Amino acid sequence: MNKIELYNSMVSFYLKTGQGIPDFIRTKIGSDPIDDLVNDGLIKIVRRRFNHLPDDVTLCLTGVYCVEDDIHTNLKPLDYIRLYMGVDPVIEIADFKVTRNDFIRDPECMKGYHEWLTENREMLANIWKLKPMEGEDIGINDESIAYLKAREWYEKNDKVSVCLDKLLKANDSYNKRIPLIEELIVLLKSSNRINEMQEYSAELEDTKAKIKMRGRIEKWLRNQDQKATIQSII
């Protein structure tokens, strides 16, 4: 299993359960795909420590609600995320079960659920933006990191949400340039101005490459904590 297959498996599992996957999967697939996804900023490792038991280690997606961060001292968030994701029964321990109908009929359960929804609104909304990734679209490379570090918003250490907004505006500007350059190339070709046509053809390819790189960065930024600062994730 490579890192793309692992990531897509984690997305599929999360959308069914709202949870991450046990770290012991590395005994079957090795550490490389896990380490690659961690380095790409697409997953994180959450560790729960116990006094007399082995640590509970889970691989979790970034940029979405992470129940494993919330259940160190209180297991209620696990009930809430299962209810939110449509898992039924919400609670199942041996022969003891609490169905979705049981849960929503309990005023105290629903009071806690409402507070949890309000507190985690933004990260819960990001869940429905999750989608499988393919090939080179996953993660960011050295070129992308260099591009990010050269931006003014990196120097200002803006929040990820602000950086994403500015990136989208820059890409929109580049997308608008493409039809203009293509039209100019046609005119130059019809006028037999070959040298100029070749120059603008090279500019067109460069523009498309930058749009592709920004698209890669956009997908990566969308998977980060939108409230985090850009320098804290690079």
Oligomer: single chain
What does the overall shape look like?
elongated
Helix-strand pattern: HEHHEEHEEHHHHHHHH
Average pLDDT taken over every residue: 86
Separate helix tally: 12
Characterize the largest beta sheet: strand count, sense, and whether it forms a barrel: 3 strands, antiparallel
Beta-strand content bin = 5-15%
- Gyration radius over CA: 23 Å
Structural class by helix and strand composition: mainly alpha
Can you tell me about this structure?
This protein is mostly helical and 234 residues long. 58% of the residues lie in helices and 9% in strands. The chain contains twelve helices and five strands. The strands form two sheets. A three-stranded antiparallel β-sheet has the order 1-3-2. Strand 2 (43-48) and strand 3 (56-61) form a beta hairpin. Helix 1 packs across helix 3 and helix 10 runs antiparallel to helix 11. The two termini are 26 Å apart. The mean pLDDT is 86.
Question: What are the SSEs and their pairings?
Answer:
Elements: H1 3-17, E1 21-22, H2 26-29, H3 32-39, E2 43-48, E3 56-61, H4 76-84, E4 91-93, E5 96-98, H5 100-104, H6 107-119, H7 121-125, H8 142-149, H9 152-155, H10 160-190, H11 194-222, H12 230-233
Helix pairs in contact: 1-3, 10-11
Explain briefly what this protein structure is.
The protein has about 230 residues and is mainly alpha-helical.
Keywords:
234 residues, mainly alpha, 2 domains, 12 helices, 9% strand, elongated
